[in-house]
């Protein structure tokens, strides 16, 4: 990115965690500050410079979501990408270790008053980080990437859910798979803010409220937008979680405070926490572009199952977290030309203080049923619940599920 006349050429503000967005770090002569960065800076003038979005409505597009076409192009250019697909055996060990660690912290705090500084600070710094890690572990497991089989993945998701305190892993799976299949489709993709949220929260105080209580929006919005038909696994997940909560609170001395620690950790994990910046970074429209998915390549990915590699993840959902950096390295001509975020914490700050981004900054599409020529939907197998066992079989199985024309087909 070309610096302004007042900024030395050699200064790279991306090294300062997003400081380029502050007045002293502005690097463009445009009417608004640039929030994202390009790995290939020579293309910046071709990418940036569009007019601000109308804040009274979402960005409605009739184009298909970008990941299918890029996936097909990458597969043609780099067919060896299929070798990166498949489950990651390391995942189950990491998940179980993190669950055990969170149990240990809760046990050590069982005699600490919940309103003490020690309890609150530990719940935010350690508990919030751990439970956010478990959020993203469940995300990884949702794509059947911890085991080859579907059922072991669901069992592990239920176990990973235990320190979160509230059962959500099984219902998250259904909603998240729809988020991949129907990205941006109004009324189907429940990751999208509703019209009511746009009306009520489209200001600084509203955005502060939204960022503080993100976890509640993600928990409650799906039920209002699109209810799920419960399955055996839904009831099993709820029963296991409630039984665990009851046993902790009833039979463990200090167990009620342990349970409170779990729930407080989950709240902080989805609130004003550094890792929670990825919720906003991933699909909100930034720099007035029509790009609906953004990646982040910083060190916080270590704590977040590389979910920052979000363009890569949506392009190939069956590539596990350990191989997403290899996917980017395999196809730099596709990923290094996309603006990305230099910092998750600064994403939250920018979201709150910048008038050019807000609840309105999401791409929406009409539900596919009202389109005259619905595009085919293809996934690379990472979202399927079918019992396929290899990357090539997954790809073949996905091709057999082509030409979905409406939800539920």
TrEMBL record:
<dbReference type="GO" id="GO:0042284">
    <property type="term" value="F:sphingolipid delta-4 desaturase activity"/>
</dbReference>
<feature type="transmembrane region" description="Helical">
    <location>
        <begin position="232"/>
        <end position="252"/>
    </location>
</feature>
<keyword id="KW-0812">Transmembrane</keyword>
<feature type="transmembrane region" description="Helical">
    <location>
        <begin position="196"/>
        <end position="220"/>
    </location>
</feature>
<feature type="domain" description="Sphingolipid delta4-desaturase N-terminal">
    <location>
        <begin position="53"/>
        <end position="91"/>
    </location>
</feature>
<feature type="transmembrane region" description="Helical">
    <location>
        <begin position="155"/>
        <end position="176"/>
    </location>
</feature>
<keyword id="KW-0560">Oxidoreductase</keyword>
<dbReference type="GO" id="GO:0016020">
    <property type="term" value="C:membrane"/>
</dbReference>
<keyword id="KW-1133">Transmembrane helix</keyword>
<feature type="transmembrane region" description="Helical">
    <location>
        <begin position="90"/>
        <end position="109"/>
    </location>
</feature>
<protein>
    <recommendedName>
        <fullName>sphingolipid 4-desaturase</fullName>
        <ecNumber>1.14.19.17</ecNumber>
    </recommendedName>
</protein>
<dbReference type="Pfam" id="PF08557">
    <property type="entry name" value="Lipid_DES"/>
</dbReference>
<keyword id="KW-0472">Membrane</keyword>
<dbReference type="InterPro" id="IPR005804">
    <property type="entry name" value="FA_desaturase_dom"/>
</dbReference>
<keyword id="KW-0443">Lipid metabolism</keyword>
<feature type="transmembrane region" description="Helical">
    <location>
        <begin position="115"/>
        <end position="134"/>
    </location>
</feature>
<dbReference type="GO" id="GO:0046513">
    <property type="term" value="P:ceramide biosynthetic process"/>
</dbReference>
<comment type="similarity">
    <text>Belongs to the fatty acid desaturase type 1 family. DEGS subfamily.</text>
</comment>
<dbReference type="Pfam" id="PF00487">
    <property type="entry name" value="FA_desaturase"/>
</dbReference>
<dbReference type="InterPro" id="IPR013866">
    <property type="entry name" value="Sphingolipid_d4-desaturase_N"/>
</dbReference>
<dbReference type="InterPro" id="IPR011388">
    <property type="entry name" value="DES1/DES2"/>
</dbReference>
């Amino acid at each position: 990115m070309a610096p302004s006349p007042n900024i030395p050429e050699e200064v790279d503000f991306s090294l300062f965690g997003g400081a380029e967005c502050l007045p002293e770090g502005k690097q463009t002569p445009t009417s608004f500050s640039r929030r994202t960065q390009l790995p290939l800076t020579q293309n910046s003038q071709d990418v940036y410079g569009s007019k601000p979005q109308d804040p009274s409505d979402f960005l409605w597009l009739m184009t298909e979501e970008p990941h299918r076409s890029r996936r097909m192009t990458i597969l043609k250019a780099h067919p060896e990408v299929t070798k990166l697909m498949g489950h990651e055996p390391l995942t189950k060990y990491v998940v179980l270790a993190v669950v055990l660690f969170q149990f240990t912290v809760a046990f050590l705090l069982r005699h600490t008053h919940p309103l003490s500084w020690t309890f609150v600070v530990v719940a935010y710094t350690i508990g919030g980080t751990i439970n956010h890690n478990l959020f993203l572990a469940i995300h990884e497991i949702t794509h059947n990437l911890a085991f080859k089989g579907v059922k072991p993945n669901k069992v592990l998701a239920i176990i990973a859910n235990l320190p979160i305190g509230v059962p959500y892993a099984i219902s998250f799976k259904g909603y998240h798979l729809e988020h991949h299949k129907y990205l941006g489709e109004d009324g189907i993709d429940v990751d999208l803010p509703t019209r009511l949220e746009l009306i009520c929260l489209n200001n600084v105080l509203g955005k502060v409220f939204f960022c503080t209580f993100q976890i509640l929006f993600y928990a409650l919005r799906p039920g209002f937008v699109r209810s799920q038909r419960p399955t055996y696994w839904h009831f099993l997940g709820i029963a296991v979680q409630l039984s665990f909560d009851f046993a902790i609170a009833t039979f463990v001395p200090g167990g009620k405070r342990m349970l409170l620690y779990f729930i407080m950790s989950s709240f902080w994990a989805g609130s004003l926490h550094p890792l929670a910046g990825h919720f906003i970074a991933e699909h909100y429209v930034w720099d007035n572009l029509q790009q609906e998915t953004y990646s982040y390549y910083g060190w916080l990915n270590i704590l977040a199952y590389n979910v920052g590699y979000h363009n890569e993840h949506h392009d190939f959902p069956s590539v596990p977290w350990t191989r997403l950096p290899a996917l980017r390295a395999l196809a730099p001509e596709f990923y290094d030309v996309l603006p990305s975020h230099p910092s998750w914490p600064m994403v939250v700050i920018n979201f709150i203080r910048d008038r050019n981004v807000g609840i309105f900054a999401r791409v929406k599409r009409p539900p596919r049923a009202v389109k005259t020529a619905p595009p085919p939907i293809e996934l690379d197998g990472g979202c399927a619940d079918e019992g396929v066992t290899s990357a090539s079989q997954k790809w073949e199985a996905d091709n057999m599920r082509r030409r979905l024309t409406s939800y539920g087909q």
